[in-house]
Amino acid sequence: MIDTSSKQGQLVRSLGLFSVFILTISSVIGSGIYKKVAPMSAELLSPHLVLICWVLAGVISLFGALSNAEVAGLLADSGGEYAYYKKIYNRFFAFLFGWTNFAVIRSASVASIAYVFAQSFNSLIPLPQLPADIANVSLLGVFSPFDNFGVKLLTISLIIALSYVNFKGLRFGEGLSKGITLIVIISIFMVIVLGLTIGGGSFTNFNTPATGYIETSWLDPRLITQIFTALLAAFWAYEGWSSVGYLGGEIKNVNRNLPLALVMGVSFIILIYVSINFTYLYILPIDEIIDVQKSQNTIAAIAVVKHFLGNGGGLMISILILFTTFGSTNSTILPPPRLYYAMAKEGMFFKSAAKIHPTYNTPANGLWIQAVWSCILVLSGSFDQLTDMLIFASFIFYGATTVGVFVLRIKMPDVPRPYKAWGYPFVPAIFVGFCIALIVITFASRPREAFMGLALILSGLPFYYYWSKKKP
């Protein structure tokens, strides 16, 4: 790995409330805001249902953040939920969470967001592709590593480059995220304002469902399954809000600033997401948005902006997506190696990940371990396959953290809480119930992604027993 020195640095508390708020936003706003309206439209066939799912996903994510914030405020430390689970449950469950983040959740997030960066770049400058006989090579009938190879190669290059940026220091990576995020937020609001004023859209689009749409009862099992399948896409857009918990050891006044930044950040993101998806559906009929889903490297936001601003608008939004996904990839790469560092210090992860670089004070080896696995995931699957798989895995542990609110109220009733979950016990209970429903319905509607996610989670078991046996 990078650091072969015997010297050891240390993590430094350097992040204030605004920095953590910005990191929360930049960890979330990535590819989903531009891309996921198309698969959701293809699944639901109704503009109303698409918007309802964006609002529902936002509210559920906020319920999760409101619940997670109590645990974060009480137990804040480097490693996020890994540190929490050791106190709420046991060492095995904490390990399983950490391993799942490495094998599925965070590494696949890095791969997915960087993939959309490359897709957007490809819309500006077409990337070379391999001959069809090589591109169509399939492993086990599931993985196509050489398909869309030019996009995948640029994706891998971005992951390596940004891992190097974060290897050089937290402040540099955090400053990069802050600058890019501010540019992105301003640009998104410009798209919303221009789209609603000169976009040439119509409210008629909201009353015109897609071809093939059949109105059914809200209690129809098929509609419920369609809604939960669409929510998998929406939740990908909201994914990432909990990752700032891994920086607990580097946040000033962490017990106050971490829960406050979580709640403020997720609330702000809901406002942005609902507004811009309303704009997409106002400008383009849903059938035209569904057509975008049928094209491998086309992004819905680019199609919408091209519609009312022409090729110049398409160029503008493509550059904005490059900025957004660049910043979001950077923010997604930054926190997880702190988790791997916390695990490795206890002998429950690859030993080299316990090294803090003596000059840059970053978990350098953890960054490079993550980079390698993320690159492998880029080659293994498509964008939607990766995101559905990681959302399935994420909600297993989101639910477990929220159950921890109830557990800690019993185990640690007298410990001061800087923040208590709003709406307790109803809000945490609703969120846990939703997590259970999402997991069950994912097995029914996306069995391949669910079983792939489950297999990667369980792949940690041999490592656990090996490292437990070595641990004194």
What count of helical segments does DSSP give? 19
Name of the CATH homologous superfamily: Amino acid/polyamine transporter I
Rg calc? 21 Å
Q: How many E strands?
A: 0
Describe the protein's architecture and organization.
With 472 residues, the protein is an all-alpha fold. The chain has a single domain (17-470), classed as Amino acid/polyamine transporter I. The protein has 19 helices and no strands. Helix 5 packs across helix 16 (383-411) and helix 17 packs across helix 18 (447-458). The longest helix has 34 residues, at 91-124. It starts with 16 loop residues before the first helix and ends with a helix. Mean pLDDT is 84; it is low at 1-6.
Structure summary:
With 472 residues, the chain is mainly α. It is 71% helix and 0% strand.
Describe the secondary structure blueprint for this structure.
Blueprint: H1 17-28, H2 32-35, H3 37-44, H4 47-75, H5 81-88, H6 91-124, H7 132-135, H8 149-167, H9 170-198, H10 221-238, H11 254-283, H12 286-293, H13 300-333, H14 336-345, H15 364-380, H16 383-411, H17 426-445, H18 447-458, H19 460-470
